[in-house]
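batch job 7 of whatever, protein = Nitroreductase family protein
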Amino acid sequence: MTPDPSQATRPVQTPEQVRAFFDAHRTVRQYVTAPDGAPIPLPEAHLDTILHAAQRAPTDATAQLYSFVRLVDPAVRAQVAALTNNAHVATASEAFVVCADVRRTRRVLEVAGHAPGHWPAIAVHFGIGDAVMAGTNLLTAAEMLGYQGCWIGGVLNGLEGILDLLRLPAGVLPFAALTIGTSAEDAPYRPRVPRPLVIHTDAYTDGTDDDIRAATEHMRPIAARPGKPGDWALLLKMYFGAGGGMEAREPHLVAALKRQGLWAGEGTPAGPSGQ
Ligand SMILES: Cc1cc2nc3c(=O)[nH]c(=O)nc-3n(C[C@H](O)[C@H](O)[C@H](O)COP(=O)(O)O)c2cc1C
């Protein structure tokens, strides 16, 4: 008999079990493949379960402002791997491009005969939020099944090419790719910023310079990956400092927001979002 999902109960785990589960999380970039390097697909029941988990994510205003593009064709995988500079897009068991998507909501309104509003900033805010929540559910479900994965913000390295390749229409904006597979590497446990700098009580509080220095030292191992500088502040400088990678990405993201009808800044055309 098929279980009734409305009656489902959740087995309760102990705090230690929950901590152990999240402590076993690793971003993994090398996956078990076939001898020729081709991806080994997930068993159908596992794929179905991670997609189900993605869609069980909570969502703003009931809308589900996201879409995933599942990458199956090896040629498409190879192109996304090249456009993102992340080779494991080609070798993972599963690879997705996780997108904010306000187009479908607009279509629901139009099909029902209602005029869509104009809310491009809201679209980005809640669209990215919904996309991240669904993607996180998918990755967590995959980890529950024994897989590991990797988010790939590298989509911002080749945004225009990805819009073209995946034929993403107005109202749809890639957030990141997400790969899933069986780990073929011994990935380290990577630290996080000490809790008092991240979890504030009742009001935001800045840490002292010494707190920041201690956090920077604590985070050093995360910058120790081959090709990285071994110093967290230096790594952040490469990404977020003047002349760093994020400044290089910025104009491409702005161009993509404009192209997809999601730009809320100066020069915004009046009209429904996602047009
Ligand atoms: C939004 C997002 C984008 C990321 N982009 C990349 C990426 O493009 N390439 C990559 O190898 N790892 C990427 N990562 C993985 C991070 O480097 C990784 O999560 C971080 O170093 C912490 O390591 P851990 O997940 O093993 O704890 C990304 C993670 C997130 C959440």
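notes: Strands lie at 66-70, 94-101, 148-152, 172-181.
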